[in-house]
Structures are given as structure tokens and as C-alpha cells.
Amino acid sequence: MIKVDNLSLTYGRGDRRVVVLRDLSFHLNVGEFVTIVGRSGSGKSTFLDLIMGLIQPTSGTIERRKKNLSIGYVFQRPALLPWRNVLRNIYLPLQISGISREDRRRMAMEALEKVGMGYAAHYLPFQLSGGMAQRVAIARALVQDPDLLLMDEPFSALDPMLRENMNVNLLRLWQRTGKTILFVTHSIDEALILSDRIVLLEEGKFLKEFEVDIPRPRGYETFRTERFTELNRIVRAHLPIQPNMPRIPSEDEDGVSDE
Amino acid sequence: MLRNIFLKGLGFAGFMLSIWLAWHLIISIFAPPAWLFPSPSMVYQRFTELWEVEALQPHLRITATEIVIGYLLGIAGALLSGYPISQIRLLEKVLTPYLIAANSVPLVAFAPLLILWLGNGIEAKIVVAALIVFFPATISTITGFHAQSPIYKRLMRSLRASKLQRFLYLELPSAVPGILAGMKIGAPLAVVGAVVGEFLGTGLGLGHLILEANGLMDTPQLFVAIILLGMIGIVFYMLIMALEQILLGPWHNKKRR
């Protein structure tokens, strides 16, 4: 569906030149669920922005195999407009595309049903919990029936239990709709439960790619399987320890050395 | 909603009643002469006298016209200039210090100049009211248009919204609280602007009625004019509050909680 070749992005010039992404090559097949795992500031969200076409690369190419590939985007925060009710938030993309009033209401309602929130059509965003709001944001991204869904750490603000629940719900949704999903997270657990493939991104470079061979369908019990634990250990082993992170000295180290 | 309006109305009635009682109390304790501090009944009597001979209505009409037109012009000017200023960084950088400076100058000081330029008619008073409303409302409008979170801008970009769509679906609605704040600040200022304009000339308007009553030591008439001005201000403010409720509704109620 998408093929990325030698993609680089730099900001500034001369001494102020900052390399955000360097020489990334990547492909995404139709119907695949791929997750990019990386720390904060590793360039994950920027990569999604490039795929979306919101920014242009400094060098390299992004080849879309389909003309007019439609893309839905789910952000880290739900970004629901607070003055619009749930239904009107969901049909915003349709309104922007010029779809008629009746059609957009029908399509928005269908998308809302897909995320199991048909009952909340007339709620205002402040009446929703974090998980509900993010489900509405997913429905908004699905409303135009996009070929590709980009998800930028959509559950990172949720508590761990709710996050697990959202992961399982997303899996069910993905199985039902067959969408191609490119997901970004810093949680290895999340990446393992969801994906067919995991790509590790560190300081703007792809470090390693893993096939996730945990059988589907996956659910809550998958978190407790041996294969899940084993893959978790393997992926973690490839994550470099950050050398510049400040640390608290241990008891046998002299924390005050200037005297 | 209805319960809310009823409670607010009840609160307002209670407030007015306590002022009326306090007024009576002052009269009965200190017994001041009528030319210094008339009783409520004397003021009411003067009001009915003036009303019956239609001595109040033309003044009330003219002042209300000045306030409403001046206010609307000031707000329209604030909206028309606030949006481009908020969008063009250079314009904002250059103009904001002057807007703030102009807002700190007592604009009523310009009133004599405006009367000199525009004559003694209604026009000069409308311009004074409009000017006095314009500056704070513009600053509020600019703040309002800056009030969007970057994530919404990103959302609009990802949805490939046109400039007009961004304005209609994001920028304008998110600026509404700021614009309404400016409108609320502007409402009493429009009353001040119109009355100050009237103080400086013309034979019409509640400001003129105040000056006339002062000259004749007709203190009950002075009170009638002041109370009427206060009532215009309150009605005006309540209309804007109603507009706020219609435009922002439950979203705003949540924000205030």
C-alpha cells in the first residue's frame, strides 16, 4: 500500500541543522497492522506526518500504491471540538469534504456504532471519559472509510487497564473492518498485542523489525501467553540504553564529587 | 435553563428590593433635604410627571440609539480588525502596543475633539461610544482568535480543510468566548461613551437631562436619569448574557463550573 525509500528529514541549516529522520525505508501491505515503537522524541509522530503528507521530506520518496489513497488520522489526544456534540464531531471530515447533511449524519452514526458508542451521539465532549473520547476520535477517523488509518499513540493518556481494554477493542474493530493500520506507540506490550510487525525507531533511524507471530485472534489472555512474554523480552533487548539520561547515584557511589 | 433564569430573576429582584429598603432607611434615619437626597417616592413621582408629559421619551430614545449604534459599530470594528491582526504576526506585533496604549488613554478625553469635528448631533456621541467599545473589544477578539489549541490546527490540516473551512469550523467558534468577553466589557462602556458625549453638547439625551437637572437643582430628575441609564446598562448586559447562553450553551456552563 505504501513504500518508503531512503526518507530523511532535517530542519535548519549549518550549525543549526537537526536531523529528525534519517534514511528510512519501509513498506506497508494492504490489511496489515504495523506498529512503530520508539521513545518520545524519536521521530515517530513526524514519520506519520510525512506519510499523511502534512510535511514534505528533505530527501527520499513515499510511494502510494493507490491514487488518492484516503487516510484517517487518530491523534494522541482525542482533539474533539468542545462546542460540537459527538455526532457533529464525527461528521466534521465529511462536512469538509462537502457530503450532504443526511448522508453525513447517516455515515457518522454508522461509524459511531462501529466503536460501540451509538448511545452517545448527542453527548458533548466534556461528558465523555478519556476512553470514550478516544473511541469517538477513532470513529471520526473511520467515518470516511479510509484505506489507511494512522494512529499516533492514541491510548497513551489512558490508565493501563483502560488501555488494555482499548487495545482489545481496536483489535476487534480491525478484524471487522480489515483496515490497514500504521500505529505508533512507546509501549512494547501494546505493539505486541496489536501488530503483525513491529519496527523499532531510535533517534530518527529504524533499528530493527520484528514479525509478531502470536496467533490471532488475540485478546486479554494473550498478555499472559509465553510467546508474548518471550517476544517482549526479545524486543526490549534491542532497545539501547539512553546514555544521556540523568540518573540517581546508587548508595556506594559518591553523589557529591566536587568537594 | 428556565429554573436558572427564574433564580437569576429572583436574585435580581432581591437585590433591587434591598437597595430600595436601604434607600428608605437612609431617608428615615438622616432625613436629608429633597434637593440633596430625595426619597424613592419623590423620584418615582418625578418619573411619572416627566413620563406623562413625554419629557423623558425623546431623551431615552436618543440615548438608547446612540448606545446601540455606537456599540454595534465598536463591536463590528473589533471583529473586522481583530481577526486580521490575530492572523498576521507582523500586524499584531506592530499594532498591539498601540491598541493597549489607546485602551489606557481615557477616550472620553477625545470627546470634545469629536464634537468639534463631527458637530453637535448624534453622530459625535455614536463615535465616542463606538471608540470606547472598540479598543477593549478588539484586544479580547485577538485573544479569542489565539485561543485554539495546536492539536485542533493539526486536525484541520490532516482533514485538508480550506482556509474558509478552518475559519468557520475552528477559528470562529473557538474565538466566540473571547469575542463575547469583549462584548460584555463593551456594553457598560457604550453607555458611558454616549452619556459623556451628551455632557458636552446637544439638547437631547439622558446625559443632557442630567446636566439640566443639575443646573436646576432638580435632584429627583437627576435620579430618574441615573436610574434609567443603569437600567439601560443592565438590560443591555442581560441581552449579551442571553446571547452567550445561546452561542455557548452547556459547553460554556461546563467551563464555568
What does this structure look like?
In chain A, helix 6 links the parallel strand 6 and strand 7. In chain A, the strands form 2 sheets. In chain A, strands 5-6-7-3-8-9 form a 6-stranded mixed β-sheet, with helices on both faces. Chain A is globular, with a radius of gyration of 20 Å. With 259 residues, chain A is of the alpha/beta class. Chain B is mainly α and 257 residues long. The mean pLDDT of chain B is 87. Classes of the chains: A alpha/beta (259), B mainly alpha (257). Chain A: Keywords: ATP-binding, Nucleotide-binding, Transport.
Assembly type of the chains comes to heterodimer
- Number of DSSP E strands of chain B: 0
Query: Helical stretch count of chain A?
Result: 8
Query: In order across it, which strands form the biggest sheet of chain A?
Result: 5-6-7-3-8-9
Low-confidence stretches of chain A: none
Instruction: Please tell me the overall pLDDT of chain B.
Output: 87
Q: How many strand elements of chain A?
A: 9
Strand content of chain B: under 5%
Radius of gyration of chain A: 20 Å
